[in-house]
Amino acid sequence: MSDEYILVTGGAGYIGSHTVIELINHGYKVVIADNLSNSSYDAVARIEFIVKQHVPFYKVDIRNEKELNQVFSNHKISGVIHFAALKAVGESTKIPLEYYDNNVSGTIALLNVCKSNNVKTIVFSSSATVYGDVTRFGDNSMIPIPEHCPMDPTNPYGRTKFVIESILKDIYDSDELWKVAILRYFNPIGAHPSGLLGEDPLGIPNNLLPYLAQVAIGRREKLSIFGNDYNSHDGTPIRDYIHVVDLAKGHIAALAYLKNLQSKGLYREWNLGTGKGSTVFDVYHAFCRAVGKELPYEVVARRAGDVLDLTAKPDRANKELNWKAELTVDDACKDLWKWTTENPYGFHIDNYSWENFDGYNNRLHSFVNGPLKVNLANHGALIQKVLLDGVNMVKAYDNAADFKDKSNPFFGTTVGRFANRVAKGQFELNGKKYQLTQNEGNNNLHAGFNGFDKQDFLGPVVKHKDGKFLVDFLIVDKDGNDGFPGEVEAIVHYTIDESSVGIEYECRLLSGEATIVNMTNHSYFDVSDSANIDGTEVKLVTDQMMEVDAELIPTGKFVANEYVTDPIVLDEKKPFDNCFIVDDDNCGIDTRARPLKKVFEATHPKTNNKFTVETTEPAFQFYTGDGVNTKGFAKRCGFCVEPSRFIDAINHEKWANQVILKKGEVYGSKIKYGFTKK
Ligand code: NAD
Ligand code: UDP
């Protein structure tokens, strides 16, 4: 892969985010610069989740040449797709100076930086509004609208696009090495088919479909249809609605076209539209079909500035760019409805907030659900805090840097791709021997030096459904990392309700025939509200544990633990670091269909707090933290309950199928940590 990047300004926005996905799907590397004035970083987190890779992001205002130049210094930029702009027609008539400053001055600043870095390839987001009211020609000669139609924008927003096109033309005229693609969009609609990305208008939406979507989910009472006395088949105005994914693909086509010019330059405009006009009622009916019911509307007076027909003649783009819109208004309505139902308030979710922990890659996410406040971070998809009525029940650092300290005892993290020990770091799979890194004496512990706990997960995708927060983190672990075969994708799904943090793990092979997987969570819990867990009363579902040798590797036998009483009162003279057996019933690679079984309960006589563990897993490691010695925390500051497969299962024939993940299969497991009052 080339080390060249495409800079996408405004890449966190509606059209930009969809285009970034298409760019990456087409093999481009992308860097995003966006000041987030009309978007949210959550869109970028979701882009990363969809494309399963990191996308560098800079919170930069394009008017800030110095900061923008830094982006060019950090990445070798070969071309720019320039979306960043303010875009509300009505607003532009109220605050024209802001529009000229943001859009025109912003573009001048961007072009200055491009020029000084010798980057001369640019794709620019223009708009059909530059044509103005094409019915002014009277004879329908400009309907559908061709690119040679004279420009006559009717509002300040449209005029910023006209001015920018003119600037780009002048630059090309002064230096014909520039390659400039002007893309004039018609009416972008719809959302990403994944339901993860879409338009997220702030305040009351101006556009037809975003407004209608809010009517459909009950945020607005009814749609106002602005006039039904136009000269169309049903009296409402005609527009050329184009699915945002088709529009995004148009940018890839334009970029490829510019690239194919080799050393020649170009300045050229292309309409991006479908060529097919739809009336307001056509679109209204299509959306009602997607929703499955009639939505309330009222016909009101015409909206000032609206014209009868704005339909593209897209032939130039069809022929020259070899691009054609393929999706229909019905497709767009279906995707918009999915986006709307799954994200009724766009990226905004009540009682969820985040801040950078140590940058955008690793953010600290806070969720408040009734008495529970839970913090999660991207690093290791870790649980940083669980407060029950303000009392902390999880021990971990309060700043990101400390998590990277060598003495960190895996605080809060997801451990994988292989939790616990692999004897001598060796195993055999499909007749082939593998040597893993030996990071604990002879053995491999918790996957080695670069396990899931050491990496930043992508995402999260956060949703709120039925009173619960659903939070998904994703990681791609490379083939050969710490010696493990095959590239895998693992997803950590958290479910946070008023009394528990549920975790569901999923892992799939992306390359190779087979690998081994065993995932769990390594939080240090505490119900004592103090620095030491002694005195905690613990109930275990079983006293059967694995017999292990001096290196904590199983002998293959189960034995009873002499300290297991009912309840056990934790005491430093009776430390635990043992694997307890819940079920020896050949669970297979995916335990998620099994019922959650309560395996652990902890209370403390001095507090009112209760902690429970339920799981679908066949075993759990119970560790009383006797080895902890790190900044701010001493031994026995908390205990761990890590549901998982049997230790070193791969090296025991009768257990091996618990951990062998084959191509096409899914590793799965569930844990539910409960935090309640006694
Ligand atoms: P959007 O508001 O969702 O995206 C624009 C992005 O640019 C936002 O993320 C915003 O934060 C960012 N931005 C704005 N000013 C910036 C600045 N000074 N520095 C850095 N970032 C800045 O809008 P969109 O619908 O995705 O539109 C993208 C482009 O397409 C715009 O140029 C718009 O004018 C053009 N366009 C949009 C439509 C439409 O109907 N959506 C139609 C025709 C043309
Ligand atoms: N429209 C409407 N009600 C609304 C918003 C829009 O009837 O609440 C109509 C508007 O008159 C136009 C069409 O829908 O005919 C598309 O309007 P939009 O603002 O989405 O895009 P425009 O074509 O104006 O850029």
Which radius of gyration do the C-alpha atoms yield?
Answer: 29 Å
Can you tell me the residue ranges where pLDDT is under 50 for at least 5 consecutive residues?
Answer: none
Structural class: alpha+beta
Which CATH class of the largest domain is shown? Mainly Beta
Number of domains: 2
Continuous helix count: 12
Family: In the N-terminal section; belongs to the NAD(P)-dependent epimerase/dehydratase family. In the C-terminal section; belongs to the aldose epimerase family.
GO biological process, one term: galactose metabolic process
Pathway: Carbohydrate metabolism; hexose metabolism; Carbohydrate metabolism; galactose metabolism
Cofactor: NAD(+)
Structure notes:
This protein has 678 residues and is an alpha+beta fold. It folds into two domains: 5-202 and 239-277 and 310-320, NAD(P)-binding Rossmann-like Domain (Rossmann fold), CATH 3.40.50.720; 352-677, Beta-galactosidase, Chain A, domain 5, CATH 2.70.98. Helix content is 21%, strand content 31%. It contains twelve helices and 43 strands. Strands 26-27-28-29-43-39-38-33-36 form a nine-stranded antiparallel β-sheet. The chain has a seven-stranded parallel β-sheet with strand order 3-2-1-4-5-6-11, sandwiched between helices. Strand 23 and strand 24 (432-435) form a beta hairpin. The protein is elongated. The mean pLDDT is 97. The chain binds nicotinamide-adenine-dinucleotide and uridine-5'-diphosphate (UDP). The site of uridine-5'-diphosphate has 15 residues, from helix 7 and strand 8. Nicotinamide-adenine-dinucleotide binds at residues 9-10, 12-16, 34-39, 61-63, 83-87, 102, 106, 125, 127, 185, 188.
